[in-house]
Structure formats: C-alpha cells, structure tokens
C-alpha cells in the first residue's frame, strides 16, 4: 500500500536534511518493495515569502491528506522583525494545533562512538537511554490573552499559561504507556510549588497512575530536573512534562549527546498523521554550505517508520546503519574538530545508504 508523506523542507538547512531523508526513504522503498509518495509544501519563512503566511492552506491540506509529515526546520533572522503572529514559528505552532499533535517524543540515546563529543564525563553518560514526552498543543505557547499594551514605562507584555484537565490527562497517560512499553519508570516534571497549572498537573498524574499500578513514578520540580539531567541523566527513563518545560529540558538533554544535530523527534495525535522532525533549528549560518548533519533527520525517519507505518524491521535496519556509520568513524563538521575528514551532508547520507543496503542484502 502506498504511503503518502508530506515533505516540508522549510528554512535554512531544512531543504538539505529533507533531501537526505527522501533519498534514504527511496532506498528503503527499493529494498523492501514499499511505495512512498512525496508531496511538498511550504512552511515557515519560505511560506511567508511565497504566500504571505507561515502556514498556507494548501500546505495544511497536503498534511491532512498524508500518512506522515516530515519537517526540516523553520525560522531565521530574515523574519525576526515580523510581529509574533506573522513569524515562521507561528506556522509550526499552527500546524501542531491543526493536526492535534499533542504528544511530542524526544528520545535521548548515547551512541558509543560519539561519547567523546559529549561535554559530560563518560561515567555520567554511559548507558543513558531516556525519552521526553512533551505536551505540545497547550500551555504558555498557546494561551490567551497574549498581548502587549501600554507605552513607555507603562508598557507590559502578557502571556497566559492555560491547561485543562483533559489536556493533561491524555499526555500523562501517553507517558505512562511509554513507560509500560519500555518496562521502566516515569518522572513527571512540573513547578507545583509555584504554578496552579502544575498543581492540577500533579493531581492528574496521581489519578492516572492508578491505571498503571505496575509502573513506578515520581514527581520532580523542573529546576531540579534541569540539574539532575546533567548530574545523573541515567536516573531517568521516561519524563513527561508540559510544553515549555519539555522544550527547554529536551534541548538541554540534547547536549548530553554532544550535538543538536543528532536528536530526532516525533509529534503524534490520537489518530491523524504524525509530524517527524529533527530538534535542531534552521542553522542559517551554515545553510547552503552542504555541511549540515543529516543524522537527526534520518533518525526522525526511523521514528516515522516505527510510529506512522509500523515498519519495525525497516526502522531497526536504518537505526543500525546510522550506528554503523558512526562506529566506522565517519563524522560531519559538528561532530569533529578535523575539518579535513568531515563529511558533507550528501557524503554522510551516502554512507548511511551504503550501510543500509549492505545490511539488508546480507541479512
């Protein structure tokens, strides 16, 4: 059966890493006799330039008619002076809301071959394997009112943090479900000593926990969680938290691996298409230079194969191919100090395809 994939290259290095992903998906379709159909749409700054809006109706329609969505990146200094509701990031937030992508999964796994790239000591990072389950369609990023008013010294800015019990229940339940699948424990992160929304969050966690009596769980304040991620990341298995906390903690956790260019993400709804994207930004300073690391995007393809298409063999083969390439010493510029040996985006993609092809043919 044909799988329809919406490709949203976006801004900066987005087109380069999305091109890497489509090449790998094309090879997977050849090796495993699948049929992937790619349909392209504009999102973010490129959409503003072409149509005056960060999320065109045509793009939204393409996504809703697809089985999965692959996103490169959005944003850049070119659009930084635009009003908040006109900026590229508004397009991504709107897409998440329109597709009801309430659950964002951000795995953090250490590749042994990249242990030296981490700023943390080996004994701290060895064995780290955690996933952050972030609520994605509520909280401070979506709350109303959102405004600026007054002038001069009287000017104020207002953002509103709102969560309903229903929103909290479904993401907390998703966190427990992942802990159940992984056979691990759940850490719920909040700021219940200050925020009323966090106090509701903690109450809901206690209620949902009764549905999962075999799962060990605990509560942790977000400031402590930020410290513990660096002090002892191995203590975590599944972290579930609200939108802004999850955004900040997952970026912090990415540096355990040594590079933002290594981490994927999946944003899932209850029954519609999921969105798969690297967590790095658009990196406008290296856009067009052909040196972007494609591995976070290719790892996002692994998550797409797993969660959108249930192609577990294909996902495992691609994941192992990425690991093999790293074990063989291949690096992009963000992962090495040796510019002479650093691979380009295209070269790294080709190495992954070669490793994937050999793995599948041999098996």
Automatic annotation (TrEMBL):
SUPFAM superfamilies: Isocitrate/Isopropylmalate dehydrogenase-like. Keywords: Amino-acid biosynthesis, Branched-chain amino acid biosynthesis, Cytoplasm, Leucine biosynthesis, Magnesium, Manganese, Metal-binding, NAD, Oxidoreductase. The record marks 141, 191 as: Important for catalysis. The keyword Amino-acid biosynthesis applies. Substrate binds at residues 96, 106, 134, 223. Its main location: cytoplasm. InterPro entries: IsoCit/isopropylmalate_DH_CS, IsoPropMal-DH-like_dom, Isopropylmalate_DH. Mg(2+) binds at residues 223, 247, 251. Residues 4-352 form the Isopropylmalate dehydrogenase-like domain. Gene3D superfamilies: Isopropylmalate Dehydrogenase. Pathway: Amino-acid biosynthesis; L-leucine biosynthesis; L-leucine from 3-methyl-2-oxobutanoate: step 3/4. It catalyses: (2R,3S)-3-isopropylmalate + NAD(+) = 4-methyl-2-oxopentanoate + CO2 + NADH. Binds 1 Mg(2+) or Mn(2+) ion per subunit. Its EC number is 1.1.1.85. The keyword Thylakoid does not apply. GO terms for molecular function: 3-isopropylmalate dehydrogenase activity. Belongs to the isocitrate and isopropylmalate dehydrogenases family. LeuB type 1 subfamily. Catalyzes the oxidation of 3-carboxy-2-hydroxy-4-methylpentanoate (3-isopropylmalate) to 3-carboxy-4-methyl-2-oxopentanoate. The product decarboxylates to 4-methyl-2 oxopentanoate. PANTHER family: 3-ISOPROPYLMALATE DEHYDROGENASE. Homodimer. HAMAP family: LeuB_type1 (MF_01033). This is 3-isopropylmalate dehydrogenase. It comes from Halalkalibacter kiskunsagensis. The lineage of its organism: Bacteria, Bacillati, Bacillota, Bacilli, Bacillales. The gene is leuB.
């Amino acid at each position: 059966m044909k799988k329809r994939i919406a490709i949203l290259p976006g801004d900066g290095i987005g087109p380069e890493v999305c091109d890497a992903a489509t090449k790998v998906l094309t090879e997977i379709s050849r090796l495993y006799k699948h049929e992937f159909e790619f349909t392209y749409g504009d999102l973010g700054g490129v959409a503003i330039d072409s149509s005056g809006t960060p999320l065109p109706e045509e793009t939204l329609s393409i996504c809703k008619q697809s089985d999965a969505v692959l996103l490169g990146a959005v944003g850049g200094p070119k659009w930084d002076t635009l009003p908040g509701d006109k900026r590229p990031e508004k397009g991504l937030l709107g897409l998440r809301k329109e597709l009801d992508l309430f659950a964002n999964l951000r795995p953090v796994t250490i590749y042994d071959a990249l242990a030296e790239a981490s700023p943390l000591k080996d004994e701290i990072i060895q064995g780290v394997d955690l996933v952050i389950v972030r609520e994605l369609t509520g909280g401070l990023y979506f709350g109303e009112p959102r405004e600026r008013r007054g002038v001069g010294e009287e000017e104020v800015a207002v953002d509103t943090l709102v969560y309903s019990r229903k929103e909290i229940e479904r993401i907390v339940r998703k966190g427990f479900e992942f802990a159940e699948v992984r056979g691990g424990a759940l850490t719920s992160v909040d700021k219940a000593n200050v925020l009323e929304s966090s106090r509701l969050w903690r109450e809901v966690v206690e209620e949902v926990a009764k549905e999962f009596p075999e799962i060990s769980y605990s509560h942790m304040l977000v400031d402590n969680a930020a410290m513990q991620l660096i002090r002892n990341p191995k203590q975590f298995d599944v972290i579930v938290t609200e939108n802004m906390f999850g955004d900040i903690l997952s970026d912090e956790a990415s540096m355990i691996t040594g590079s933002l260019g290594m981490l994927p993400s999946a944003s899932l709804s209850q029954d519609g298409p999921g969105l798969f994207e690297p967590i790095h930004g658009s990196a406008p300073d290296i856009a067009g230079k052909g040196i972007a690391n494609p591995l976070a995007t290719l790892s996002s393809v692994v998550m797409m194969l797993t969660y959108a298409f249930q192609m577990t063999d294909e996902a495992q083969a691609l994941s192992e191919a990425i690991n093999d390439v790293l074990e063989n010493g291949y690096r992009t510029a963000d992962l090495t100090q040796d510019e002479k040996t650093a691979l380009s985006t295209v070269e790294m993609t080709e190495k992954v395809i070669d490793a994937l092809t050999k793995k599948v043919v041999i098996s």
